[in-house]
């Protein structure tokens, strides 16, 4: 019998949360990056499942940062070690 182990729990704001800018040009400067940040997931996830959740290691969909050695930084509070 196989056991299903959840990789995480997430909340995605379907309306998006856009940051405001000082001017219209600032707000519209990089629309692709702004769109990615607006729909970023919030939640908690198994740091061991990260290669399956974010294959590009872009950290644009999930909130985490990596160290130079590839490990998750200790201040990335949404990425949790397995077993917590």
Distance between the termini: 24 Å
State the order of secondary-structure elements, H for helix, E for strand. Answer: EHHEHE
Task: Please give the largest β-sheet.
Answer: 3 strands, mixed
Helix/strand-derived category reads alpha+beta
Spatial strand order of the main sheet = 1-2-3
Number of strands: 3
What is the CA-atom radius of gyration, in angstroms?
15 Å
Poorly predicted segments? none
Give the integer mean of the pLDDT values.
82
Total number of domains: 1
Determine the strand fraction and express it as a percent band. 5-15%
Shape, per Cα inertia axes: elongated
Estimated helix fraction: 10-25%
Quickly count the helices: 3
Features:
84 residues, alpha+beta, three-stranded mixed β-sheet, 3 helices
